[in-house]
Amino acid sequence: AQTVTQSQPEMSVQEAETVTLSCTYDTSENNYYLFWYKQPPSRQMILVIRQEAYKQQNATENRFSVNFQKAAKSFSLKISDSQLGDTAMYFCAFTPPRGGADGLTFGKGTHLIIQP
Amino acid sequence: DAGITQSPRYKITETGRQVTLMCHQTWSHSYMFWYRQDLGHGLRLIYYSAAADITDKGEVPDGYVVSRSKTENFPLTLESATRSQTSVYFCASSLAGENTEAFFGQGTRLTVV
Description:
The structure holds two protein chains of two kinds.
Chain A: E1 3-5, E2 10-14, E3 19-21, E4 24-26, E5 33-39, E6 46-52, E7 60-61, E8 64-69, E9 74-79, E10 88-95, E11 105-106, E12 110-115
Parallel strand pairs in A: 2-12
Antiparallel strand pairs in A: 1-4, 3-9, 5-6, 5-10, 7-8, 8-9, 10-11, 10-12
Chain B: E1 4-7, E2 10-13, E3 19-25, E4 31-38, E5 42-51, E6 54-57, E7 64-66, E8 76-78, E9 87-94, E10 103-104, E11 108-112
Parallel strand pairs in B: 2-11
Antiparallel strand pairs in B: 1-3, 3-8, 4-5, 4-9, 5-6, 7-8, 9-10, 9-11
């Protein structure tokens, strides 16, 4: 069974700062997919960024980027130039390479607060 | 409207009652999922379905029943609700294959009193 650990229950930074959210996972699979989801107060789950384990290049989506360290089983999310709208719960998630049929395994989440 | 919708958005029920949460998607995605979200636990998988008439248990299936007679619908039933089932429930869907992005509904907040 896979596990996903997010060790920071809550983080708070000033607007425009850069923040990094940590995520580690445990799996015996060699190939898999990793995700970061954002959940604002509206409760909607929004995909932020995705990484395929067989790709060495770190994924980037505008202000969001990841630091994927496969050997260390680490998948951190960096948010640059943070904005008030980035305030949300952030969940790291894992799925094995079986076409997504097994669903996602989530971490417990990090509550990120962007201060004005 | 295209997308994935859950109903109701909010529900209060009494212990011992049966309650069904509805989930409907318009993309014809093969895979559908039910998760529950509890403080301190993140989201945990209850049941999933790879296609119509194919369902399987996830991490926390006890006390829940699902069915999938049509590709677009995936209802979740609590046969005899308990207070421990007070939670926010999310339905999700995704395409089959390696593109495993899941799309989530808005969630249903269920309170069992």
